[in-house]
Design brief:
alpha+beta, 3-stranded antiparallel β-sheet, 16% strand, elongated
Length: 189
């Protein structure tokens, strides 16, 4: 079936009047965080992943015939009578794009792609009091099979920083031996 498409409006007039695009919404959401963390998100590629996954989630929340192209929503000019079945509609019976987008949890996308540095793993996650907590973290991550998602420099300055997926680190640390119930102390009679 071939049909004519039309512009349903922009991100600004359909979803968020104070934003220009979903990418800008991601930036706004992380803007309250530590400046170095924000720079590492960008340098490591985690920010681009967050933005990409947010766009993918928005596409999945919209009806199949409606798409987000850059910052514009495009869909059928003459939708079928059942085109919006199962999707929120406005008072005129047209798909409610904002309601569809609000079904997407941006915060969970950001958390799933959050990062942590090797030094933070050593100091915060492992509680290392060593002079160089990065070394302890490096050894622990290697033993657990966790690899950095990136090695980067902020603005091309200073030493290279190993950056890990925070979710992957948390999962690996929670599942390591010695965590949870001690089965070696149970009576096996």
């Amino acid at each position: 079936m071939q049909y004519t498409t039309t512009d349903y409006g922009t991100w600004c007039n359909q979803v968020n009047e104070f934003s220009t695009s979903p990418d800008a919404d991601v930036l706004d959401n992380i803007s309250g965080g530590d400046y170095e963390w924000q720079r590492l998100l960008e340098a490591s590629g985690a920010l681009a992943t967050m933005q990409s996954e947010y766009r993918e989630a928005i596409e999945a929340a919209l009806p199949p015939s409606v798409s987000l192209c850059s910052d514009e929503f495009v869909g059928p000019a003459y939708p079928d009578d059942d085109e919006w079945d199962g999707y929120p509609v406005d008072s005129m019976g047209t798909v409610d794009i904002k309601a569809c987008v609000l079904r997407v949890n941006l915060q969970s996308i950001i958390e799933a792609n959050d990062i942590i540095t090797q030094e933070q793993i050593g100091r915060v996650k492992l509680g290392s009091k060593a002079k160089n907590p990065s070394s302890a973290a490096s050894q622990a991550m290697r033993r657990l099979g966790v690899k950095p998602i990136s090695r980067c420099q902020i603005d091309g300055e200073g030493q290279v920083i190993a950056v890990y997926s925070k979710a992957e680190v948390d999962t690996a640390l929670a599942s390591r031996l010695g965590r949870g119930a001690r089965t070696d102390l149970q009576d096996t009679r």
